[in-house]
Design a protein that fits this description.
The protein has 5 helices and no strands. It has about 70 residues and is mainly alpha-helical. The chain has one domain. This is HTH psq-type domain-containing protein.
Length: about 70
């Protein structure tokens, strides 16, 4: 069966952090629908967070709470 997905898009660091924040209270498939991205994109972002240590502190040099205040 052929893929029916749309064009590829690039997510910013801020968008990825928003997705990670949303994953704390929602299921990956719900987050994918909310952000209009694929389920596996959400899963990959979560996996990359675990493997690479992506966090507010490592990316922005500030705490999670401070980072949300600047968005």
């Amino acid at each position: 069966m052929a893929s029916t997905s749309g064009k590829r898009c690039t997510l910013s660091i801020e968008q990825k952090l928003e997705i990670l924040e949303a994953l704390k209270s929602k299921k990956p498939d719900d987050v994918a629908k909310d952000f209009n991205i694929g389920y596996f994109t959400v899963k990959n972002i979560r996996q990359n967070e675990d493997e690479a240590g992506i966090s507010y502190e490592s990316i922005l040099g500030v705490s999670h709470k401070d980072a949300l205040m600047h968005l």
